[in-house]
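Intended use. Records like the one below are meant for learning the mapping from a protein sequence to its folded structure. Do not use them to infer anything beyond what is encoded.
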Amino acid sequence: MAAALALPGVAAAQETPPATEATQAPAIGAEIAEAQEQGTAGSDIVVTGSRIVSNGFSAPTPTTVIGAEQLQLNAQPNVFNTIAQLPSLQGSTGVTTGTNSTSSGTQGLSSFSLRGLGTIRTLTLLDGQRVVGANVTGVPDISQFPQLLIERVDVVTGGASASYGSDAVGGVVNFITNKRFKGIKGNIQGGISDYGDDEQILAQLAVGTSFLDDRLHLIVSGEYANEGGIGPGGFGEEGPGGRDWYTTATLVNRGITNDGAPQFNYREHAQAYQYTKFGLINAGPLQGIAFDASGQPFQFNYGSNGVPRRNANGDVAGCYVGFCIGGDLSGNVGIGTTLKSKLERYNGYGRLGFDIDADNEIYATVNISQVDTSNQPNPGAAQTSLTISCANAFLPASVAAQCAPNGITSFRYGVSNAILPNIQVYPSRKQYRFVGGATGKVQAFGSDWRYDAYYEHGENITDIHVRNMLIPRRYLQAIDAVTENGTIVCRSAVARANGCQPINIFGGATPSAAALAYLQPVNGPFQHTRQTQDVASANISGDPFATGAGRVSVAAGVEWRREFYRVTSDPYGNGILTGDTSYNADYPADPVFDNGGGNWYAGNYRAGRGAFSVLESYLELNVPLLNDPDGLGSANINAAGRATRYSTSGTVYTWKVGGTWDTPLDGVRIRAVTSRDVRAPNLSELFAAPISVNVPNFTNPFTNPPSSIAISQNTIGNRDLVPESARNTEAGIVLSRPSWLPGLSVSVDYYNIKIKDVISALGAQQLVNYCQQGVTQLCGAFFLDGPGGLGNFVNVQPFNLASIKTEGFDFEASYQYRQPLGLPGTFTLRGLATHVREFVTDLGLPRTVPIDSAGANSGNVPSWKWLLTQTYSQDRFSLLVQERWFSDGVFGNQYVVCQTACPTSTADAPTIDYNTMKGAFYVDIGGTYNFGKSVSAYFKVDNLLNRDPTPSPQTNTGVDVNPFLYDIIGRVYRVGVRFNF
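Structure written out for the chain above:
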């Protein structure tokens, strides 16, 4: 039978999920297998890894099943957190990722990534149906699912495009809800971190009943959750709430590639020497003069015994390119980023089903939800290349007096702008999802045929409001201050006529309210996105005839889908002369603006729209080949094919072929499957409205040594993209409940995934670096020679240019022992692990080499990742101990580690002095006490040992941790009460 993990609420490597309420089964894996063998409640088995619906069918694709009890034991405010712990899920996004972003719209978005292939290559379903995307990338937000009604979650760790269509390259995550719930159940939970922040409240309630002699079934549920998040630390290295692990770890560049020493050095307490908290003259004869909070000049402490060279480039002797070590760190901005986004969600769900007869039902569901998040990117709005006149009215006289003797009338200046209120980003996502359908079975041609058909309409409305956003053009006018008639004013009369108020950027003087209103208008960047999804789907499955080995099963279906989005934005970011005057009352014109848009420091949203449609059909067969229980065992072959026509790129075909063999060896099964899978370009990749982001500390490699400049990074779409295609192969062996040890289940599976025509975009820095190194076809995408940074830009656009290859092994095992040491109850051991042997990305460009990121702990795919669980449960209480671990790794596999006699450092093989990034081991504990059959109290402690994150060095002063792998929250306590009447 199926290889089932026999543990509370979890069945791993299993093809036959339960048909009944999972919460009642302390050994659910075993009970599922028994239900199959006895033909009881599990007679109609729905297999997420396949479209075949047949009793006793064993799909060849490994599937991990997480039951409701395991979700409850983990006691998370969002079920996403529990599922994302699975070792095969790597690179999933959540409330601790994307927090330094202004324009992405993904802050607080909970979405899965299987195999480290990204959220866009994992298909997430609700009751086997697609869900409208919560972002223009098309990925849904798990926060918007009806979480209290989840009966189980099926995680298919293999390609499933032939069965489910586009996006299922890495696999499928399918949430199954309880459609027959009766009674009243609820959950109230609270939590807080060890640092007194991230306060959490969760309240859930569901009611189910029936009418008309149990033929009309009504279920409604509602949820409210509030996660307070973890705010920013500020400037320097002081973390929020007393966290002391931030060290400004940086990969500093010596700028020398061929002197026998490593080009890059790993250093902590790095200090950017282009700016300080209250201002620094960073080039020319006055280089090194900084200003304190009171505006008084002093000689800046560069660290590393650095001495300013006082040249036009702003070089510092004894330091690295752009950085010194130690010294005055007060201006660093990395820890000033929100560590965990605040999240508040509301969720309402209802299902009404009517039984036409005992076998057929029509139903309708509605899901209305809202998720509000907020975050702060880096504090202030750093400027590194300002040109300041020596006649500036705010410049201290002692500094101004040094200009003439040094033959200058202006100087270059950098400042963190700590005097400005920090940028705040407020994304809000609202989902409206409606489904109507029918499901059941009928008799035709002498056999039973199961069917399901539905129509879904979903809408997602995303609004992003940004507060305290700087307008750089106004800023330049405001800092250019002169004295007229004894009053300090903005130099430009045109700017003064449009409200310009002068500000003093020499020190910590707070600007006036009028000046702040001019620099950071109350109506900041704004984006409104309406996204819709319409799906019509029909599927049938039956066993029309038999061979000598058993019944032949067939499934077939058709599906039509249309995706659409439209985005509008404010005229300061999008452009004033667009013909849209609806915002002009809130966003008045200003002669200093660029009427083409891009006037904000960040958050320059653009208007756009796009749509595509998909029509597809599939056929799947399961053919028994062998049925000899007393001899060779039993075997089957499973095959499927799908034809898909995309309105944007034509027709593509996907397929899979696999099989299973229950060998004569006791409990041993062998399985294998290979498939061709696809991912079509999403709305964002095809029709992305251009977004501009100001990058104040961009490295220009064309100067010698490389210099730091400011640029505008523009992200745009590409309508000529075609679908990605993948070849996915898996093979494994399963030991399931052998007679000599019936509590044991073990599985080992090998996987190999190759994706070509990968849709990807080079980062702005990558693009410029490759041009400088000779990849000339990229050189038309940027301009870096604007005076003072004006006009500098890099265009970032996706292309079908890359390929990805990854391979590795999945391991799953459990052992269940009833009445351990004579005690009542059950003790269960469970382990899941994934070993990634390689994860190679080839950009497909001349003079570039493939990069293997397996084991690079600065990314998403550590070499090893484990999840171990021990549970003891009885009628009165249960206890849980869980260990999460991933292996030591490196910053990047491309680096060549050396101390002396280093080879020449190149872009593909840069030399470095240290390349080790420690893994992490986390322990979680929890327990539940039952007050009778209906009420229980529980507790949970995550990261019991309060393990700090390992630094993940940047090449700038960003947050030096990797939230995709490391826990950045710290120890968290949760308690709650559940009831079920």
